[in-house]
Specification:
Elements: E1 7-12, H1 28-43, E2 47-52, H2 60-65, H3 70-94, E3 99-103, E4 112-113, H4 116-124, E5 128-132, H5 142-152, E6 157-162, E7 167-168, E8 180-181, E9 183-184, H6 186-191, H7 199-207, E10 212-216, H8 222-228, E11 234-236
Parallel strand pairs: 1-2, 1-6, 2-5, 3-4, 3-5, 6-10, 9-11
Antiparallel strand pairs: 7-8, 10-11
Helix pairs in contact: 1-3, 5-7
Length: about 240
């Protein structure tokens, strides 16, 4: 079986790593299961980049609503993504997958600085690359980071892992009649203000003709299905 997408950026939310049973920011079983899924994908020769959010620890927008200066809050959120990136690195290394963490905010004792050519070289050498600390700038989300890094490394697609099985016209958890899109254009997603990725991220993907697959990460094997080209979730193109 030949993967449809050879080089991918997998966008994970910080909340996806959270232990909902006790409120702890990181769930070891989720991390291990994710590492095993990525190991299987890695064994097929797929070049994998990860971009992870920090919302399980701190979210800049949430901080701003509670009196934290927006710029300061965004930097706090970027540091939260570093913690999540190191946790993912540890889980991947524990199952024998080579991995490197690259950060947009220099912290040489913790991770490599983001250097595009070095990141591409890691991918060519068969290493998973985890991008942390967002773009290194406040006011930009990790969705925008995923779009930017995917464009820079010339990825074939972005896989956006969520808690629902695609994009709906309204929140399926609140509205029983919510309708799921199998395929949707960038323009339509922007015009309808579908809150899956922010407008900056959508626009960047549209400008660079970068497809986005939105799918449910809680179903085992879905990452592989998406990469193999099975019809899964919603395709934005």
């Amino acid at each position: 079986m030949t993967p449809k997408y050879k080089r991918i950026v997998l966008k994970l939310s910080g909340e996806a790593l959270k232990d909902v049973s006790n409120g702890e920011p990181l769930d070891s079983s989720i991390l291990r299961n994710l590492a095993l899924e990525l190991k299987e994908l890695h064994s097929l020769g797929v070049q994998i980049c990860l971009v992870v959010g920090g919302g399980n620890i701190f979210r800049g927008l949430g901080g701003a609503q509670n009196g934290v200066d927006r710029t300061t809050g965004d930097y706090m959120g970027m540091l939260a993504t570093v913690i999540n990136g190191l946790a993912l690195m540890n889980s991947l290394e524990s199952v024998g997958v080579p991995v490197r963490v690259q950060t947009a905010i220099p912290m040489e004792r913790v991770a490599e600085p983001f250097i595009l050519r070095r990141a591409i070289r890691h991918l060519e050498k068969g290493r998973i690359v985890i991008f942390v600390a967002g773009t290194g700038n406040p006011y930009f989300s990790t969705d925008t980071t995923a779009s930017l890094r995917a464009s820079e490394v010339q990825a074939d697609c972005i896989l956006k892992a969520t808690k629902v099985d695609g994009i709906y016209d309204k929140d399926p958890n609140k509205y029983a009649g919510a309708v799921k899109y199998e395929n949707i254009s960038y323009i339509e997603a922007l015009e309808k203000r579908l809150a899956v990725m922010d407008s900056t991220a959508f626009s960047m993907c549209m400008d660079n003709k970068l497809p986005i697959i939105v799918f449910n990460m809680n179903r085992a094997g879905n990452i592989k299905r998406a990469v193999m080209g099975e019809t899964i979730g919603t395709l934005v193109s």
